[in-house]
Structures are given as C-alpha cells and as structure tokens.
Write a structure and sequence with these properties.
Elements (H helix, E strand, L loop, with lengths): L2 H14 L12 H12 L13 E3 L11 E11 L5 E11 L3 E3 L1 H12 L2 E2 L1 H16 L3 E10 H4 L10 E8 H4 L4 H11 L1
Parallel strand pairs: 2-5
Antiparallel strand pairs: 1-4, 2-3, 3-6, 6-7
Length: 189
C-alpha cells in the first residue's frame, strides 16, 4: 500500500465531489484517510496474519470432549460499495486432538474481516482457517451483520440483518442434538 498515492487520490476525490481539499477542515483529511486505510485494510498484508497456536487436547492428562463456544463482534467493508458492515460471530467446535485459545478465534475473524469482503466469503474463509488449524470433530460458525450499503443507500432499510453460516462435521450430522445445544449456549453468552 502506497500511503502517498492514497493521499493524492483522496485529494482528487474531494475535488470531484465538489469540495476543496485545501480548506482548513479537509487539509489533513487525505493523510488521515491514508493512515486509516493502512489500519482497517491490514488483512491484505500477509505478514499481519495472526500466528495461531494450538494446544494438544490431553496435554495435562485431561481430554476435553465437550463443546467450546465463543461469541464476538467484528466489522468489515462491503466490496461492492466500500461501506462498513458489522455484527457478531458465533463459533463453536468439538475438539479432537487440538484446542485453541479463544483470543485466537477473534484474531482470525479480525484478520479476514480487515479487507473488502462479502459476508458469504468472510464466513467461509474464517471457517476454513479454523477447521484447518484445529481439525475438530465438528464446528459451526454463524455471522450476523448489518450492512450500511443497504441502510445508507439503495433501499435504505435500517436494522435488517444478514445471517451466514458454515456447519461442519458432527454439527452438520447433528448427532445427539449437538446443533440445538450450540444454539442454546449461544443464548447464554
């Protein structure tokens, strides 16, 4: 990412929309936007991909076979309009040989959401990363988000949410009602 080029382009955008990039309130805006882009689009920098450490299940003589769940918030940017979409993710897995620290789930979500996205791809990329890292007996990832491209422009419908999911392994097979158990736990956290 070339910060100087972004600043130059933003000066031109300000002119094109009818404003003056040299007026007091906008003078530093191209630089601020360039700095912001480096931060919010960090998902394009492969060096910023989080290092994901796992732990052996049964490392301390205790093998955990129950469900592990996590819930968190995220924001990303619509690849069609460049406007934010944001919401919550719900993740659950049944470990096999590996466990993951829950802060690592949030880091994976953060990394993949820090680029222009569509929610369907975001959900799949996160699920693929978690599945390949953990190789769990099963996992589920649900993302629920509000899209400002729908709320601020176009149909201008405020408050609607889109839900996407990836359901794999024992959650897909729904053995012993594990999917229902996951949804019950999600209501608690």
């Amino acid at each position: 990412m070339n910060p100087n080029k972004i600043e130059i382009l933003w000066r031109e955008i300000l002119k094109e929309i009818g404003d003056n990039p040299d007026r007091k309130g906008l003078k530093d805006t191209p630089k601020r936007i360039s700095t912001m882009y480096q931060e919010i689009y960090r998902g394009y920098d492969k060096l910023k991909k989080p290092k994901i450490t796992t732990f052996e299940n049964n490392e301390d003589g205790i093998k955990y076979g129950g469900m592990v769940c996590d819930k968190g918030h995220f924001f990303s940017y619509c690849e069609h309009h460049g406007i934010p979409f944001f919401g919550e993710y719900f993740f659950g897995y049944v470990p096999d040989k590996k466990l993951i620290g829950l802060s690592k789930v949030a880091r994976i979500v953060d990394y993949y959401s820090s680029k222009l996205q569509i929610q369907e791809r975001l959900t799949k990329q996160i699920a693929d990363e978690l599945e390949s890292t953990l190789t769990p007996r099963g996992m589920v990832l649900i993302i629920k988000a509000r899209h400002l491209c729908k709320e601020m422009r176009g149909v201008r419908k405020i408050g609607g949410e889109m839900v996407t999911s990836e359901v794999r392994g024992c959650f897909r097979e729904n053995k012993n009602g594990i999917r229902e158990e996951f949804f019950s736990i999600m209501k608690l956290i």
